[in-house]
Amino acid sequence: MHPHWRRCSSLKYGPIFSVVAPSHRGTSPLSVLAGTFTAGCDVTVSELGERALLARIQARLNTAGRHEASLVIGIGDDAAVVAPMRNAHMVLTTDAHVEGVHFDRRYSAPADIGYRALAVNLSDLAAMGAAPAWALLSLVLPGDLLVDDVLAITGGVADLGRQFGCEVIGGNLTRSPGPLMVDVTAVGEVHPRQVLARSGGRPGDGLWVSGRIGAAAAGLEMLRDQQIHGGRGFSPADDCIGRYLRPEPRVRLGRVVAQARAARAAMDTSDGLADAAHQLAEASGCGVEIEASALPIEPAARAWWEAAGKDAVLDAIGGGDDYELLFAVPRTWGGRLRHARSRVTAPTLTRIGVLTKDPAVRVLLRNGARESLPGGFEHF
């Protein structure tokens, strides 16, 4: 059984949301219940109760939107049912956002946690060239979590979803004896001939990366430094900190590159540019060379690391959470890439290296020397 806003099976309850046909969206039975409580700053999820909390979450997410005609069954059954458009592949991805691993509530606001949980999934869709359509949201909540915080998390998800036409159509809600977890499954659509994968690269293809790298990794270090030392002149308005708290998934860029067929392979840089280069090269059966001098390192991040006496190149290429896109582009496809770039002027694209014939090659070229390309973030 797929998760879809249901109680845990141990509670022995069936679905608590009724099915509303897309063409007959009236007042949900829970919309009345949603108004029976006024959550204040000190109300916890245990005090409010599951049914009332679910009602509030449903009202906050508000699934009606541009994909309404394709939604056969939404919130209210054991699983969502969608009818994708003709001549389209469905692309599905999922990511769990776990407190203590992916975020820290000491410096991530609840709305930022929700925003980021969806952003990482939309970045995966962007790397496949897909347009976001739907999402499932599972919340694993400590009983003492404030209701206002839960609504802020779901509000962050909804805010980003509206930007990219991604509608939350279901999910799950359960108790956690430990950390808070926000688990998102996202679904997108892409024409069969426009799918981007990691495995399409060929020797000689140039490697291009979007935007600037290192900002989010430096931003996380800045936040931790603030927590330890009480701040050193940085604020959430700083670019690096903002890039960590609210990464911008490159959905439009991924779409136009796929539509122009301007790349043979792609991957997002969620675990670092070095990790993405390793994985794309391995999937494509190629080696890889990266030119350090070509890396578009965020200036504020470079300054931060150099002030700390660290190697800005290694920190920028190894740090994660940028959610930029890495593309493998043949030399003869320059016209296609220029066409794609004319449709999306931001972020910029920078050529940083090349795929090589020897799959054993994993090289960082710097100051005329050849170094081993560092790895990226790994959970284990």
Write a compact overview of the structure shown:
By secondary structure, the chain is an alpha+beta fold. It has 2 domains: 185 residues, 60s Ribosomal Protein L30, Chain: A (2-Layer Sandwich), CATH 3.30.1330.10; 176 residues, Alpha-Beta Complex (Phosphoribosyl-aminoimidazole Synthetase, Chain A, domain 2), CATH 3.90.650.10. It has 12 helices and 13 strands.
Write the layout of secondary structure elements.
Elements: H1 29-34, H2 45-48, H3 50-61, E1 71-73, E2 81-82, E3 89-98, H4 110-127, E4 131-142, H5 147-164, E5 167-176, E6 181-190, E7 206-210, H6 215-229, H7 239-245, H8 251-259, E8 265-268, H9 273-284, E9 287-291, H10 299-307, H11 312-318, E10 325-329, H12 334-343, E11 349-356, E12 362-366, E13 369-372
Parallel strand pairs: 4-5, 9-12
Antiparallel strand pairs: 1-2, 3-6, 4-6, 7-10, 7-11, 8-10, 9-11, 12-13
Helix pairs in contact: 3-5, 4-5, 4-8, 6-7, 6-10, 8-12, 10-11
Oligomeric state, counting identical vs distinct chains: single chain
Mean pLDDT: 83
Determine the CATH topology of the largest domain.
60s Ribosomal Protein L30, Chain: A
Query: Approximately how much beta-strand content do the residues carry?
Result: 15-25%
Number of domains: 2
How many strand elements?
13
SSE topology string: HHHEEEHEHEEEHHHEHEHHEHEEE
CATH C-level name of the largest domain: Alpha Beta
CATH homology-level superfamily of the largest domain: PurM-like, N-terminal domain
Helix content: 25-40%
